Amino acid sequence: GSNTTTSGSNTTTSGSNTTTSGSNTTSSGTGGGTTGNHSFETALPIDVNPQGGNTTGTLVDADTTTDYYKFTGTKGERITAVVIAQGLVATSTGDDVTIIDAVATIYDAGKKQIAQNDDAWPRTGTDSQAFTVLPADGDYYLAINTFCTAFPNISGSCTNAGGVVTFDYETFIGDVDKLNAPDINEGMEPGNDTVAKASKVTYALPTGAKPGQYGISILDGTFQTAADMDVYEITVPADTSISAGQRPHAEFWVQPITPDNGTGAATNGKFWLVDAAAPTVHIAEVDQVNYSDGDNQTNQPIEMSVPITIGPAGMLHTYYFFAQHGAEPSVPVSDFYFIKHFAGTYYLWDVEKSPDANNLPALPEALTVSTTAGHYYFEGDLSTIADVDYFSVDVDPLSVSATLSCSAQRVGSGLRGAKFSLFKADGITPLGAGSVFNEVANLDGTPLDVAMVAGANKKIVVKVEAASQAATVTSGYYRCAVSAAAP
To answer: Half-sphere exposure of 14 toward its Cβ, with a 13 Å CA cutoff?
Structure first.
């Protein structure tokens, strides 16, 4: 959609993780759009797992018309529907406002909406990838339109419809277990409900990737009862590529639920990660009840991002990832989940050099890794709840504001009540009005945007602290994005 993910949406590094996770990459096939398939009744037939390539189409406009396609599915079939528009234009950053912002919506035979996606999660642009489990045998519909058409009641959604000049797209529907990305399904119950029966996560090299540049894997399953729990074994390959100066992470992007911009699942999940050496101790943890969807600017879907250890060959490090049914009543036909998982370097961070060397306002750690002039992304750890971290950045002389966006509990950390502040160069004087952000469980929070006088500051300082440590979650990591760039 028209929104953007804030903290940490900086740089994809390995080149192996694509928005559409294992999509069919050929581009020949049937056509839609201008041929008149603009209603359920005129929907064009398309195949699941197409052998002839992606279906191509061209929307008539960016604010009114929808293209419809019809396909046949079976009860319990796990599918994904992908729409690519930005990805067809080599010069697009993923958010080119002259190219359609595609939305994919899936309906059942009775024309009831069962799943939808605006922007694929993780968000790297406005192309779409919807996941769902089909509830019955029969016919289904895929509707393709734009953000303006799908969400006409969202304030400001159609401000740029007249500026769109490229309306072409490609689409395909595939079974999740037939994608290029490895699919790790929980299997038949009782299945992987204990560590001893954990499903082993596999990693694969996407086409054209260099050795060690493993792509995204997909974890998915169904909660059969309100007490059901699924376990996945994560042992990252020793040769996994890690960018210089980075520490490896395990990323878990849990797809949002409900039929509106979600998978159509009826229950929230609880998810946590443990070390195999201590399987009852939670390193990181999230509860989906605290998260929304990609079009909620202050409450995005789950992006659980956990620093991990990757052992050398012969000494591999194993973790277990748990998925548990939420507090809602059990509805097995719609109690399912889909998670995209990646291990290695997905984002570029300026990693804190020592948790205990930057504890004083007069001794902040200087940030140096800037992906775009004046914009810095950094991560660190509070070694104890009494620890306080300070970081400094240079200010562009023309800058009239400083922005800050941070996460801790929201990305799985055990820190509670994390507090992030902007100060002048002394690390003591607040930069200005609204210089403090206090994290809460159910909001990403509005990023700080603190006004400055151009040329008045050469440096600014970021302070990181927390009110407490969760009794059941041991990690103390956090991550931030800060900018003092010229307007």
So the answer is: 28
Residue listed under structure tokens 């775009």: 372
Q: What is the pLDDT of residues 120-163, one digit of tens each?
A: 999 999 999 999 999 999 999 999 999 999 988 775 667 677 78
Spatial distance between the Cα atoms of 323 and 115, rounded to a whole number of angstroms: 21
The tokens for 235 are 């042992």
Terminal C-alpha separation, the chain: 24
CA 394 to chain CA centroid, nearest Å:
30
Determine the Cα–Cα distance for residues 379 and 349; give it in Å rounded to an integer.
6
Q: Which of 47, 154, 25 is nearest to 101 (CA)?
A: 154
Q: HSE-up of 444 (CA within 13 Å, CB side)?
A: 27
For 74-167, strand residue ranges (E) read 78-84, 102-107, 113-117, 128-133, 138-146
Check whether the bond before 430 is cis (ω within 30° of 0): no
Q: Which of 234, 256, 259 is nearest to 311 (CA)?
A: 234
Residue 370 identity: S
User: 59: closest CA among 85, 24, 89, 88?
Assistant: 85
Q: In the numeric block, which tokens belong to residue 328?
A: 């809602």
Residue whose pair of structure tokens reads 């929907």 in the numeric block: 43
Give the H/E segment covering residue 70. Answer: strand 67-73
Candidates 91, 144, 87; CA nearest to 118 is 144
Report the C-alpha gap between 228 and 63 in whole angstroms.
43
**Per the structure block, which two tokens stand in for 346?**
């997905």
Closest to 483 in 3D by CA, of 448, 455, 453: 448
Please, what's the largest Cα pairwise distance for the chain? 69
Which position has the token pair 């952000």?
437
pLDDT tens for 388-427 read: 999 999 999 999 999 999 999 999 999 999 999 999 999 9
Cα gap 264→31, rounded to integer Å: 28
Helix (H, G, I), strand (E, B) or coil at 338: strand
Report the alpha-carbon distance of residue 420 to residue 467 in Å, rounded: 11
pTM greater than 0.85 (yes/no): yes
